[in-house]
Specification:
By secondary structure, this protein is of the alpha/beta class. An 8-stranded parallel beta barrel has the order 1-2-3-4-5-6-7-8, surrounded by 7 helices. Strand 4, helix 4 and strand 5 form a beta-alpha-beta unit. Helix 1 runs parallel beside helix 9. It starts with 6 loop residues before the first strand and ends with a helix. 46% of the residues are buried.
Length: 216
């Protein structure tokens, strides 16, 4: 089966106080539709909390063919067996992250609303670049606002995949997929969806398909 041109990329809630309960929710969400990756993003959490989350969630995700990406921490990503790491502009530099996780794990880089940063990351060997925030978000303090035209321009000129992030909901997914996003990174838009996360994943996939169909 052909890989979809745009796929869902889930980000965990910022806190996971009940790993068993979240694991149950996650499993049902992943079973509800196509998901490419799960980023474990637990800002400010101690290493042991991050490790416990990775240990609990990796089997659920990887059993379903979903890559597990750890936010910010190349050292823990390598040690705990994650499929990759995502680094921001204020985290470990790309070259250092690559040295730490090795050639076979993914490294993604936050590039805000900057084509310049994205080109630097692509030339430096990033596996994907992330643009955003596209919409207001309560999940993190986003200092930049990106325009969907960034995705279109990137898709036309560069082969490195791009991720759209920041306040994305079911209602806005089709537009970003149409603009050229390879992945839509979503947190609250799934976990706080009125009908539940599994329904959100199904709805996002339907909207992504509509958006991809609109591409010229």
């Amino acid at each position: 089966m052909a890989v979809p041109l745009c796929r869902l990329y889930l980000i965990t809630p910022p806190r996971l106080d009940d790993l068993a309960a979240f694991g149950y929710v996650l499993a049902h969400a992943l079973d509800a539709g196509d998901v490419a990756a799960l980023q474990i993003r637990l800002k400010e959490a101690p290493d042991e909390v991050i490790a416990a989350a990775v240990d609990a969630l990796i089997p659920i995700a990887q059993a379903r063919g979903v890559a597990v990406i750890l936010n910010d921490r190349p050292d823990l990503a390598a040690r705990l067996g994650c499929d990759g790491v995502h680094v921001g502009q204020d985290d470990a530099p790309l070259a250092e992250a690559r040295r730490t996780v090795g050639p076979d794990r993914m490294v993604g880089v936050t590039c805000h609303d900057s084509l310049h940063l994205a080109m630097e990351a692509a030339e430096g060997g990033a596996d994907y670049v992330a643009f955003g925030a596209f919409f207001p978000t309560t999940t993190k303090d986003a200092a930049t606002r990106a325009d969907p035209e960034l995705l279109t321009g990137w898709q036309a000129d560069v082969v490195v995949p791009c991720v759209a992030i920041g306040g994305i909901t079911v209602a806005t997914a089709a537009g970003l997929a149409a603009a050229g996003a390879d992945f839509l990174a979503v947190s609250a838009g799934v976990w706080t969806y009125g009908e539940g996360p599994a329904a959100a994943v199904a709805a996002f996939n339907a909207e992504i398909a509509k958006g991809v169909a609109q591409r010229a």
